[in-house]
Amino acid sequence: MYLGIPEVDNKIRSNKVRTGMRQGLKEGRWNCSQPKGYIPGRDEQGKVLMQLDPIKAPLIKQLFTDFAVGTFSQSEILKMPKYGLLGLSKSHLSRMLQFEIYTGIIKVPAYKDEPEQIVKGLHEPIIDEDTFNKVQIQLGLRKRQKQKPSKLNDNLPLRGFLECQSCGGNLTGSASRSKTGKKHYYYHCSNGCKERIKVSDAHNAFNSLLNDITPTEEVCELFKAILEDKYKSSAESKHNQIH
């Protein structure tokens, strides 16, 4: 009896704590450890309500914005000096980019007979849902991206970048020698499919595609202005961070 009563008491307390935390999540209050970008806090009623970290929250917002563009990979993001204050590892960054809590959404996990629930959090979001969705698209594209060849071949510049119409894998490339000893280059599937394209045909089609999507002079001027504005704001931000 003496040994059993404390164990029963601990289980009762554990269930009460779990129920209380779950009820807090249902109310939109994140009562677990604060993710990066937030600090512990309370509302006017004294209840738990995490607050924005004045230093890290703007950095995380900029990180999501940079990755949503699709220009930078996760490894490149980690190497940027301005994100050094976040102290992120590659696995931590990957989880953070998929964490919907930064949009103000809280997922209440399934428990016993209750299914998983999604509620609107009471905390202030760091990013909007549009930016978050763009990040998820980029993550999906990079997951589907096949490994590219480490060595470039001047005769096969598109090797590893073309997709097989049969299996969806990457096309590799190689040369076949004719009876006269001349080399003829082809792109073909690395998975054994019958997909086989002459290099000249692939390059002509690619050049034609580039000509079709060439932007107008007005778009080029606008893009130049955007780049200059982005550079100036980035340089100013870097100066402020150093200061």
CATH class of the largest domain: Alpha Beta
SSE run: HEEHHHEEHEEEHH
Strand order of the largest sheet: 5-6-7
Tell me the CATH superfamily of the largest domain: Putative Large Serine Recombinase, Chain B, Domain 2
| CATH third-tier fold name of the largest domain | Hect, E3 ligase catalytic domain fold
In this structure, how is the largest beta sheet organized? 3 strands, antiparallel
For the record, the CATH architecture of the largest domain stands as: Alpha-Beta Complex
Unreliable segments (pLDDT under 50, ≥5 consecutive)? none
β-strand amount? 5-15%
Query: Could you say which structural class the secondary elements and strand pairing correspond to?
Result: alpha+beta
Shape: elongated
Distance between the termini: 65 Å
What is the averaged pLDDT score? 85
Q: Compute the gyration radius: what is it? A: 27 Å
